[in-house]
Amino acid sequence: MTAANGIRLVLFGPPGAGKGTQAQLLRESLGIEHVSSGDLFRHHLSNGTELGELARGYMNRGELVPDEVTIGMVIDRISDIGDADGFMLDGFPRNTTQAEALEAALGERDQRLDRVVHIQVEDSELIRRLSNRYVCRACQRPFARDPETGVPPAKCVYCPDGGDIYQRDDDTEAAVANRLSIYHQETAPVLEFYRQRGLLADIPGERSIDAVHHSVLRILDTAGAGAVSKS
Ligand SMILES: [Zn+2]
Asked: Domain locations in the chain?
């Protein structure tokens, strides 16, 4: 089977929106490469590449890794991906400088993004999802709040002495709300950048995993040149 040009897309979604699950499903459905900036960083750091060592220097000094380093890692990675293969960027671009660099790098190869997929979930729902995690202090098994009462179990049902159930600092409502606020501040300008270019597709994420996945596939089908249909 000869493929049309692979789809090139960027995936956005707040923490708790199921972005990782959707990325995995898209990789399987479309056969495109999943390029996660977090994975790239880990790869460069553990292999001690030039860019990895550069990044490590900033990190060791407690400084932010500059855009050039991140851009270098991502551009380097996607230039290895053939026209027919396509890719899905995850965790990049984080700001408009990175978005512009990506656009320029693709343009040099006569390529462009086909779509920017933004999985949208209300903050109140994300807070409900993310702050619903409790763990046993003794065995670390996870527990959720009772859906009826909204209260987590008082004691672990697995530990013989009934270990205390508590919520980690990162999972409290306040901590989750803070993470979401940082996410919105960071992504709003990038989403606007792509909205202006007519690339942004907002996908309602408060549905089943399958329903969200099929919405994304439908959107990509109408993305124009690069789209493939696998029914
Ligand atoms: Zn326990």
From this structure: 8-133+173-221, 138-167
**Is 155 a catalytic site residue?**
no
DSSP symbol at 163: P
Strand partners of residue 115? 9
Active-site annotation holds for 19: yes
What secondary structure letter does DSSP report for 171? G
77 catalytically annotated: no
Sign of CA dihedral 180, 182, 183, 185: positive
Residues with CB under 5 A from ligand 1 (ion): 136, 138-139, 156, 158-159, 163
Structure tokens belonging to residue 217:
């596939």
**pTM (predicted TM-score):** 0.83
pLDDT tens, position by position, 98-108: 999 999 999 99
Single-letter amino acid code for the residue at 186: E
CATH number belonging to domain 8-133+173-221: 3.40.50.300
Which pLDDT tens digit goes with each residue over 24-78?
999 999 999 999 999 999 999 999 999 999 999 999 999 999 999 999 999 999 9
User: Which residues of the chain have a pLDDT value below 50?
Assistant: 1-3, 225-231
